[in-house]
Write a structure and sequence with these properties.
By secondary structure, this protein is of the alpha+beta class. The chain has three domains: about 210 residues, no CATH class; about 55 residues; about 120 residues, Histidine kinase-like ATPase, C-terminal domain (Heat Shock Protein 90), CATH 3.30.565. The chain is built from eleven helices and six strands. A hairpin with a 6-residue loop joins β5 and β6. The longest helix has about 90 residues. It is elongated, with a radius of gyration of 37 Å. The protein starts with a strand and ends with a strand.
């Protein structure tokens, strides 16, 4: 069984690649088939509006048009995000919150007022119009080249450009090849310019959705981290209260009672009083040791003083089972990051010693780099009996929340029979 908590962040490509050839193919397809799709949509809308007074039959067609426009907008977002390599969340249909026809109508209304849908639809219409203009410019270019080289293929010298160019309304004699080549170059320039214009406008429209997606994801990530920090603090507070109530407090009460008995017997039985004072002194030292261990679980001073490597060596030295440390670090890292990794390893080693009956434990710590960002990765594996689970309020739950609060990911794999493996990956900046 695996328990994983991951925090993801949306990204937007700062400068989408041009991809001239692919963009040209897209525009050519939209300039032909896209206009047909728009014609069908316009016809459907016109029929729906016309038939609405007739017993409301047109309303069914109009509702169908809403679904068709939604599908078209979803396709356009997918097309642009794939073409220019942008991370944009797909358009999602806003569902009904309750059952019933009235709620269905309200759901259609909510989707009809979806700004992302209409923005993507506008991008599709604009792309279709540009595609149609590009096809005309491309046709002009090809025919200009054909006519410019017509004498080479021994065409009739009396043939005019209008004969080949069709309804372009341009009449240049065939022997004026330089002018025709210049016209072809201008046609190529128009085609390239339209491709650039398509990229600028569509990336501007769909890119705003990418930024919205990234912002939404960042807000969600922040909320997850804040919730993890709150839960981690609550679990830590509960643990401290439990340790104080179950450990230190009874020991201090015992010390007070022992000293009280010694006070009563100091005159009548000095030897017995002396033994009670010695017992109280030993109990006091034990209480101090427990308090030191408790504070070490809250704050590890060695972590700040000497760094993560030294802190891990310290807890490995105190472990009741042999620990093989493999730590490769390049200096110091943010305190939150080091603390999350340190307490994860400390909790995993404690669980291995108390519950898993493990004979050995392997701890590996590395610095990983992805997309120019560094993170601390650690893996703790023991050969115990396994069966570890994250329970609410438990130690692993607190560690999981601490890691999530630091913007990282926590993974626990512990099948029955073992082995148990804990992995944590915490970014050095988030």
């Amino acid at each position: 069984m695996t328990s994983t908590s991951k925090v993801l962040t949306g990204t937007v490509t700062a400068r989408p690649p041009l991809r001239l050839g692919t963009s040209l193919l897209h525009m050519a397809a939209l300039g032909s088939a896209g206009l047909l799709v728009l014609s069908l949509l316009a016809t459907g809308l016109a029929i729906g509006v016309a038939l609405t007074p007739l017993l409301g039959l047109g309303l069914l067609i109009l509702v169908g048009m809403v679904y068709a426009i939604f599908g078209l907008a979803r396709f356009e977002i997918l097309r642009i995000s794939t073409l220019y390599g942008m991370d944009v969340s797909p358009l999602a249909w806003r569902p009904r919150h309750r059952e019933g026809f009235g709620e269905y109508v309200r759901s259609v209304g909510r989707n009809l007022s979806n700004g992302r849908m209409w923005a993507a639809t506008g991008s599709f219409v604009f792309s279709c119009l540009l595609g149609s203009l590009m096809l005309s410019a491309l046709q002009l270019t090809v025919r200009s080249i054909i006519l410019a080289f017509a004498p080479v293929v021994k065409m009739d010298a009396s043939m005019s450009y209008e004969t080949l160019a069709g309804p372009l309304n341009i009449d240049l004699p065939i022997h004026q090849a330089p002018w025709l080549l210049l016209l072809a170059v201008l046609g190529v320039a128009v085609v390239v310019g339209l491709v650039f214009l398509h990229r600028i406008v569509t990336v501007g429209i769909i890119g705003s959705m990418a930024r919205e997606t990234a912002l939404t994801e960042r807000v969600r990530t922040t909320a997850v981290q804040r919730e993890g920090a709150v839960r981690a603090a609550e679990v830590e507070r509960t643990r401290i209260e439990r340790d104080l109530h179950d450990g230190v407090q009874p020991r201090l009460v015992s010390v007070a009672m022992t000293l009280g008995l010694a006070h009563q017997q100091i005159d009548s039985d000095p030897q017995q009083a002396k033994e009670l004072v010695a017992e109280a002194h030993a109990s006091t030292k034990s209480a101090i040791t427990e308090l030191r261990q408790l504070t070490r679980g809250i704050y590890a001073s060695v972590l700040d003083d000497r760094g993560l490597d030294a802190a891990l060596s310290a807890i490995a030295g105190r472990s009741h089972i042999p620990v093989a440390l493999d730590v490769q670090l390049n200096g110091r890292y943010p305190r939150v990051t080091e603390a999350a990794v340190y307490f994860t390893i400390a909790e995993a080693l404690t669980n291995a010693a108390k519950h898993s009956r493990a004979q050995r434990c392997q701890v590996t710590v590395r610095v990983r780099e992805h997309d120019g960002k560094q993170s601390l990765w650690a893996r703790i594996e023991d050969n115990g009996t396994g069966g570890a689970r994250i329970t609410p309020g438990g130690g692993l739950d607190g560690i999981n929340n601490r890691v999530v609060a630091a913007g990282g990911a926590f993974t626990l794999v512990s099948p029955q029979g073992g082995p148990t493996a804990v992995e944590v990956n915490v970014p050095c900046a988030y």
